[in-house]
Structures are given as C-alpha cells and as structure tokens.
Write a structure and sequence with these properties.
By secondary structure, the protein is an all-alpha fold. It has one domain. Helix content is about 85%, strand content about 0%. The chain has two helices and no strands. Helix 1 packs antiparallel against helix 2. About 5% of the residues are buried.
Amino acid sequence: GVDGLASLLTSSRCFLRVLKLDGCHLGLSGILCIVEALS
C-alpha cells in the first residue's frame, strides 16, 4: 500500500545518494541503506 510505496521511494533516494557519494562500496552501503529504510 502507501507505506510500501513510501518505503520504496525512500530506498530509491537513499540508493541514489549512496551511488553518488560512495561508488566504491555501492553494493554493501546500498543494501544497508535499504534495510534501514524498510525497518
């Protein structure tokens, strides 16, 4: 529902931030970021 959509958008924004700031550790940071956003 709405919560799921909001979480997805939050995760996407977070992932894009990680992509720009920490390309070297994109995989790990992106996963941790998404987990935190969904928790």
